[in-house]
Design goal:
This protein has 147 residues and is mainly β. 5% of the residues lie in helices and 39% in strands. It has a domain at 2-89: Nucleic acid-binding proteins (OB fold (Dihydrolipoamide Acetyltransferase, E2P), Beta Barrel), CATH 2.40.50. It has one helix spanning 49-55, and strands spanning 2-10, 14-17, 24-34, 41-47, 62-74, 77-89.
């Protein structure tokens, strides 16, 4: 996943020695603010001295950061972890990956036909008007309303 924005904070590096392997480790933490109408902030980490030096992230830089998002459990609580694996200068002319329209599906994941009607369903009273059939999938309706 890529996130673009301006680095607004560089937090102090943390480090230590692995209890399992005995090797030293370092983690640097950064805060990026997106450039949307309503900007969002994202706190991410860079793990490893070599990666920290290679990326050389500074406050005020405009970057596109590639991250992996993961979660882990500790003592019954869950925590998110956002780790950067690449950071490049922001390019406003870079092509943006198109998002799939709402209601679109991969052809391989669609059922061949809607569920067949069953005979066990009770019939409606004769005087009741027939209700319009619901679309088989969200987005298959003929109107353009979002709900």
């Amino acid at each position: 996943m890529d996130i673009s924005g301006k680095i607004i904070a560089v937090l102090p590096e943390r480090g230590g020695v692995s209890q399992r392997t005995g090797t030293e480790w370092k983690v640097a933490t950064y805060v990026l603010e997106t450039m949307e109408q309503y900007p969002k902030k994202c706190c991410f980490e860079v793990f490893g001295t070599d990666k920290i030096q290679q990326m050389n992230i500074q406050v005020g830089q405009m970057l596109t950061v590639s991250v992996d998002i993961d979660a882990h459990e500790y003592q019954g609580r869950w925590y998110n972890q956002i780790r950067a694996w690449k950071a490049v200068p922001y390019d406003p002319n870079a092509p943006v990956a198109p998002m799939a329209p709402v209601g679109s599906f991969d052809a391989g994941s669609q059922p061949a036909a809607p569920f067949p009607p069953t005979d066990a369903q009770p019939s409606a009273p004769a005087a009741a008007p027939a209700a319009p059939a619901a679309p088989a999938f969200p987005g298959d309706s003929t109107d353009d309303l979002p709900f």
